[in-house]
Amino acid sequence: MTKSIQLKKRDFYITAVLFLSLVAATTAPAPASGQVFTRITDGAIGTDAGNTFGASWIDFDGDGDQDLYVSNAASLLPNLFYENNGDGTFTRITEGVHVDDPGIAVVGSCWADYDNDGDLDLFNAGVPNSFLYRNDGKGAFSKITSGDIGDSTDRRGWSCAWGDYDEDGHVDLFVSHPAGFLGAPAISNSFFKNNGDGTFSAVTDTPITVGLAPYTVGNWIDYDDDGDIDLLIGSGPAVGTVDADFLYRNMLSESGSATFERITELPLNDDRDGQTWNFIDYDNDGDRDGFVTNYWGGFANGMPNELFQNDGGVLTEVTTGPLVTDEGFSLANVWEDFDNDGDMDVFITGEFGTENVYYRNEGAPDYSFTRTDLFAGTTLSNYGATAGDFDLDGDLDLFFPSGGGGGNHLYRNDTPQTNAWVNIKTVGTVSNATGVAAKLRVRTDIDGKATWQQREVSTQNTFNGHSSLSTHFGLGDASKISKVEITWPSGFVETENNVDVNTFYVAIEGDGLEPLSAFLLTTLKDRVQTLREAEVISDGQATPLKRLLNQAISEINDENKEAAAALITAYIDEVDALVSGSILSEADGKDVTDPAETALHLVGSPPPVSAIAFDAFSPVLKADIPQEFELLQNHPNPFNPSTSIAFSLPEESHVQLSIYDMQGRQVASLVDGTRGAGRHEVSWEAHGLASGLYMYRIEAGSFTETKMLHLLK
Question: In 266-356, which ranges are continuous DSSP H helix?
Fold first, then answer.
């Protein structure tokens, strides 16, 4: 089993397995039913290889698109971290302790906003220790080495999972340790309670941290739907035998105290070689069905997986169909609606020649599963997997790493768009900021039938990683969502009626849904204000930027996408001018434009600049294009230390606007790039310069003009 890698020689049983027949007894594959997944082989994300285990799609920089983090269990190799460029490509991040922490072999990872500051933080479970990395913004992470969670004594870990088990609004952390698979001596699991002040307290006196066992993947999920999250730990022996998993019921709802009680009822407590548990509503009947991947279990070709149908609280094992009869050394199970038809499909990875398989849910009335040939031939020890919409086109893409050294597997979902969908990011205010364990339900009419679907936000729902923290629903032929219902971890329930399909939304606890594009622009206003408060930019520079953003948000809310696109484009141009004028650094400029680029993608391209122009200082869309080039006098003048300079362009032009001293030496470049027809205004901060007269000169096409300005300190 993958667990046995333990960063040294594999254990004895692996050698034994290699002598077995690894040709799985599987049902003949079915056609892909029009679905298309295209493997991406360009760039580092398509070619990198290593001893990679888990993977997660996350938006670590808050720009609205999905980035990818892959754990690397080779201690001398860094983890793989890819920033989404927003154009279908990725840039690999190679610097930072969260990527390359010397000597740490990372087996599993999980992400959540533990300090509720608005960005996702990272925990890496590994050998010889496991660590928390705080997201400090702008791509920087700090390794936490103080307090209980930063203790560098022995905390070898396999997987991790964030969840607010006591419902105090702060995510707590569970870290599994598989006894016998990460070296000696075996240690217990780790459990950390979030104190709400950026620190954690180790909890050692609970059933989940007492005793030794081959604990594999722990997943927080409210399996019994009683309002608190339970902990389900796959604990298969992975040595050719079977045993019961360690599944724990949270007693908070029953007793008022967040304590744990082991689940002993059958069939959940049956012997198996369990790896990863999920509870999902695969048959859309309103209750949670259980699924667990199994590993070896003594079967020649690996043990079949198990599906338990929930019928009014009674779990019954499903025993027919390829999903539960195919044999294999299975690890991850990823439940998502990949074809957007209104029911959840599942992708399963495996080791030792087990083929990675996508099982399509055939929907009502039987909700049976068909084995497809979409990923036929991918058999090189693929462990984790993660689903997320990295290209923001409304369907879920798939990534799975290859611990066997065969390279990354990124598959873009190119299925023709005929079905509707919706994607919802959760932001807690009373609940934890990530909305971990929020339950989302949507009601639509699919094929003429009223259909409820449900999901729950999880930080460990695959194998040593998780899928995107934004929740995706396929909606079939629905034209509207009649109701969205969100039950927050705080217990607050809110609903929204008559919601548009084919839209990315953000659900803010207590404030309902808003388009993701508007949410991104709202966060940008805060980022711009932060730059102003740090005196990186002046009031004169920050104000027009915030006006542009406010107007764009208003246009989005009024569903005027063309106007919103023009405003967002003007905002990006203004920020670019500040960067080219050396007022903003490249890093600051990127921080305040990347979310705008995503918002622009979501609302669509702006109309041609010849058709519409924009006044950046007075955010009003104008149809009257200037008839001639003009450079206006700066205002105020004299000034200290900031002033604004406006110019008009009758046509799109490459513009250079520079400041010179009286000896003709350039002291600042305010604009160096293409600008559209219209009136433009930029600000200049004259820090570090002496009082006196200066010149500013514009070159736009064949037009040039120079004027004087007066710095008076």
Answer: 322-325
Instruction: Name the band, by pLDDT with cuts 50, 70 and 90, for residue 675.
Output: confident
Residue 528 corresponds to which tokens in the numbers above?
């711009």
Residue type, 638: P
Span 382-429, pLDDT tens digits: 899 999 999 999 999 999 998 766 778 999 999 998 999 999 999 999
Q: Beta strands 271-272 and 260-262: pairing type?
A: unpaired
Distance CA 302, CA 323 (A): 14
Ramachandran bin of 496, using left for φ above 0, alpha for ψ from -120 to 50, beta for the remaining angles: beta
Q: How far apart are CA 6 and CA 180, in angstroms?
A: 9
Quick count: other Cβ atoms within 10 Å of Cβ 654? Answer: 12
List, for residues 235-273, the tens digit of each pLDDT value. 999 999 999 999 999 999 999 999 999 999 999 999 999
pLDDT top residue among 512 and 75: 512
DSSP letter for 30, please.
B
For residue 710, what are the CA distances in angstroms to 492, 648, 683? 58, 22, 14
Task: Tell me: pLDDT of 439 over 70.
Answer: yes
Give me the phi and psi of 310, to 5 degrees please.
-95, 120
Q: How many CA atoms lie within 13 A of 444 on its CB side?
A: 28
Crossing angle of helices 594-603/561-580, nearest 10°? 160
| Top-confidence residue, 379 or 193 | 193
Instruction: Give dist(CA 529, CA 537) in Å, integer.
Output: 9
Closest CA to 490 of 424, 434, 432: 432
Kindly state the helix (H) or strand (E) to which residue 334 belongs, with its residue range: strand 329-336
Rounded to whole angstroms, the Cα distance separating 593 from 611 reads 24
Task: Give me the residue label for tokens 């077995």.
Answer: 20
Rg of the Cα atoms in the chain: 28
What pTM, to 2 d.p., does this model score?
0.83
d(CA 636, CA 615): 18
| Residue 354 structure tokens | 């087990």
The amino acid that residue 379 corresponds to is T
Q: Which two tokens stand for residue 650?
A: 């009758």
What are the pLDDT digits (tens) for 200-221?
A: 999 999 999 999 999 999 999 9
Length of the chain: 713
Q: What does the longest C-alpha to C-alpha distance in the chain come to?
A: 88
The amino acid present at 360, given as its one-letter code, is R
Tokens 């960067």 found at: 579
| 8-state DSSP, 223 | T
Tell which residue, 158, 266, 153, 247, has the closest CA to residue 208.
247
Token pair listed for 477: 């032929």
pLDDT for residue 608:
54
What count of other Cβ atoms lies within 10 Å of the Cβ of residue 47? 11
The tokens describing 211, both together, are 């005793």
- Answer for the pair 455, 473: CB distance below 8 angstroms, yes or no: yes
Cβ-defined contacts of 245-254 (< 8 Å, 24+): 245/269, 245/272, 245/274, 245/277, 245/292, 246/208, 246/213, 246/215, 247/223, 247/277, 248/207, 248/208, 249/224, 250/165, 252/165, 252/166, 252/167, 252/227, 252/228, 253/226, 253/227, 253/228, 254/226
C-alpha–C-alpha distance, residues 506 and 518, integer Å: 9
* Residue 221 per-residue DSSP state: E
